[in-house]
Write a structure and sequence with these properties.
Layout: H1 2-26, H2 30-37, H3 43-60, H4 66-86, H5 90-109
Helix pairs in contact: 1-3, 1-5, 3-4, 4-5
Amino acid sequence: MIVRILSSILVLVAVFMGIKQGWAMISGKPEMLEFFSRFGFDSRAVMLNGGITLLASVLILFPRTFVLGNFLMAAGILLIICLELFHKDLKGAAIELPFLVINLALLYLNHPLNKN
């Protein structure tokens, strides 16, 4: 029972953060464009990344697509961590680690509505 409650809370946090960040990327917020321009992303690449983030957030909500959504979200976060490390920004990479841990914990805990 406690595992389902924890999993539910983590699902809500992951979905909220994914929608927030994905929408910021799609809408072309200057902070997002500036952040990703350091890595050579143009506005179209940022919008594509935002669309994938939004898609991953929605997929996390449903038990049948839960693993795929978490995989996409974790892959996006891992991409950012790798780019930060490539540019020798340890602080930036460390900031992304808790978000990666949330997705990995969700994969371990499973979807709260999963019947298994």
